[in-house]
Amino acid sequence: MRRKLLLLLETGVVLAGLLLGTCAWKIHSALVQPLNIAQEQLLEVPKGTTPTRTLYRLEAKGIIKDAFWLRVYWRFNLAGQPLHSGEYRMQPGMTVEGLIDLWKRGEMVQYSLTLVEGWNFHQVRAALAREEKVEQTLNGLSDSQVMDKLGHPGIFPEGRFFPDTYRYVRGMSDLELLKLAYARLDEVLAKEWAQRAEGLPYSGPYEALIMASLIEKETGVPQERGQIAGVFVRRMAIGMLLQTDPTVIYGLGDRYNGRLTRAHLKEATPYNTYMIAGLPPTPIAMVGREAIHAALNPVAGSSLYFVARGDGSHVFSDDLDAHNSAVREYQLKRRADYRSSPAPTNGAQTPSVAPETEPGQQARAPDAEVPPGDAVPAETPIPAASPNTAPEAMPQVPPQEPAPAPEAPEQEAPAAQAPAPEASAPDAPPADAPAPKSAQ
Questions:
Q1: Potential cystine with 421: which of 122, 268, 278, 399 (Cβ 3.0-4.6 Å)?
Q2: Would you list the domain boundaries of the chain?
Q3: Global pTM value
């Protein structure tokens, strides 16, 4: 009896060994089998999909065999390993083990979305809507509803997202990408605010962001941003209106068709800096770090005007006579190859956004010269394409007063103060007439 028991035990051990060996061989064979594909394919793993379901799906498509043994391998060796949703690149010659290694490393196919400096929020939403690999969750929502979804109710969205290239995987939502861009803007703005110059006319970081958006729309020449900021800061310090065309264009909204007229400059909107004192109520575009830095570190100087040369750069002037002279030279007698942004260098192809108006035609007084005709020169407008069809109310401008002039011996101010929003703009005096004193 004892010998029989030992024999049975030995037989059981041998059979168990054979069974384990067979299982190990089946699992090994399943792992080293090449994927049955002739060309590269993408394997999509939707959210919530389990490894077992994915393996059986691959088997049903004839890409792998022995899904059962692969399931056994995963259960006993990778039980705590999550399978991230997204897309995985399957290539000819790759084994199942190689594919599982991709799953373990979370090495998914990545895509990129570039948000460009100077874009408005409608353009941001349109860019997101064009991304086929992004899960679209915001279609049909108004801008304010989008901000509610982001967890920032009551916040106007313009300028609140950071322009950058964002990497994402298939299945990531448009809301997740906006959250990244919103948080990135807050981070950059906080760092730049902590390193700001002294004596700036901003009540807080948000006003600096507004100023940065004006700078962003005014010039594409990096070394000029600080000078543009200096012009605007000096104007605010002496109570001059900012008089920058991009704010007028933004206030016109869809009514802007590429032609900015004198009538537009006299139209009272919350954003028309020919009619309102100080900054507009919100940013008018997304801004990069460089524009934020310029707004918080303006270049010192005495210039109060600037005009486009026609090669993308600008001429800065201290007084109206010099400005009018620059207008006559560079605007009334335009060069044949006139351009409002710098020419590309080294043939580099970078995402860009066409300026809505020619930088440098801005920051002029009501009595500055302009080219003949009723229209102020302007580029073709950027279409305000957006999946959001519900019109949003423009923020209202709180009551404003021009900034008081600094205490100094009385002298003639170098530029004219435009009338208050409720008044009609006066006819411009002759170009050679002296500028009236700024409103105190």
A1: 268
A2: 23-105, 110-179
A3: 0.74
